[in-house]
Specification:
Length: about 325
């Protein structure tokens, strides 16, 4: 032991001496570690009563909000995002939500798949990172038939979720799966027709597409709620367990920095901008008054939060990060 201590003391003394004369420095002692430059897997859990809700991130896409938002005052969009320390185009989340009721595994929206390039299409990897396999999913509930919500339904020429039934409002099925509507649709959304036919075709052929009409209980604790405007059949999904409530908003909000303060601001992807604004105002007011959880497809991941009324508008209050899977 004495010999070992002697060598340790000698080595330390030598290191100090070399450092003193500039022959050895911490920078010379260790190779620089390479930067990793990737994030952790995109999933986050919320316990809602006895339901486990897992937010899944499909990735992000840059949205030029100054061009996309309608009826916003000139320059106000840029100012609103600058106040939130965001630059335009703004990097925007595309989120999905997995609900484990203990008897059913239910996915709300399916992400973009390979429709929009490499920054999206990560839902399946994050589903697996969260501890689940696509074969375990019993049902996929679609808020509306836009490509970034249905592209992930198929992969490599087959169903991504081979054991799942897909649920979607009949009004969206009637509109988006009818080729005769394509020519008259706004150019900004026309590509959704082909995407819908490609992604939904496998489920149609397997008799696994189940349209519903209006407010509909899909499973115990999971209810579709009509919320038209963004598309003809756009719906929210109301999730309730043991007195707790979460409203999954789909595409009610695209630009949190602008639309919470002014719900009247629509986006060019809305099929009926005036109706979309009315739906948004009603949803904000109800969430602020009743204090339940909300989440959205394009709110910053993981998007769980609450709404607070402030002045003539509203404020989005994101969830406080926890390692303990909260139940509120």
């Amino acid at each position: 032991m004495a010999i070992q201590s002697f060598f340790i003391r000698t080595a330390l003394a030598s290191t100090v001496a070399f450092a003193a004369i500039g022959l050895l420095s911490p920078a010379d002692s260790f190779a620089a570690a390479p930067q990793v430059r990737t994030q952790a897997p995109g999933f986050y859990r919320l316990m809602l009563g006895s339901f486990e809700i897992t937010a899944l991130n499909d990735g992000t896409a840059d949205f030029p909000m100054e061009k996309l938002l309608l009826d916003a005052k000139l320059g106000e969009v840029e100012k609103a995002f600058a106040r939130s320390f965001l630059k335009l185009p703004v990097e925007t989340s595309v989120n999905q939500f997995l609900i484990n009721t203990t008897t059913k595994l239910v996915l709300v929206d399916a992400g973009a798949g390979d429709l929009y390039g490499p920054t999206l299409g990560h839902m399946l990897a994050n589903l697996r990172a969260a501890g689940y396999e696509p074969e375990e999913v019993d049902a996929v509930l679609i808020t509306h038939l836009h490509g970034d919500h249905i592209g992930g339904l198929s992969r490599d020429g087959k169903m991504t979720f081979p054991n799942a039934t897909v649920y979607v409002d009949q009004k969206d099925v009637s509109y988006w799966l009818n080729e005769s509507n394509e020519a008259g649709a706004p150019e900004a959304v026309r590509g959704n027709f082909h995407a819908d036919r490609a992604a939904m075709g496998f489920y149609l052929a397997a008799n696994r597409l189940k349209p519903f009409t209006g407010d509909t209980v899909i499973f115990p604790g999971i209810k579709a709620v009509e919320s038209p405007g963004h598309t003809p059949g756009h719906v929210f999904y109301q999730i309730e367990s043991e007195g707790q409530k979460l409203m999954l908003w789909g595409d009610l909000v695209h630009a949190a920095a602008v639309q919470f303060a002014d719900p009247a601001v629509a986006i060019q992807w809305d099929s009926d901008p005036k109706q979309a604004a009315l739906t948004r105002e009603k949803a904000f007011a109800d969430a602020a008054q009743n204090g339940y959880w909300i989440a959205g497809a394009h709110l910053p991941f993981p998007s769980f939060g609450h709404v607070r009324a402030e002045g003539e508008g509203y404020v989005y209050v994101p969830i406080n990060y926890t390692m303990n899977r909260p139940s509120n």
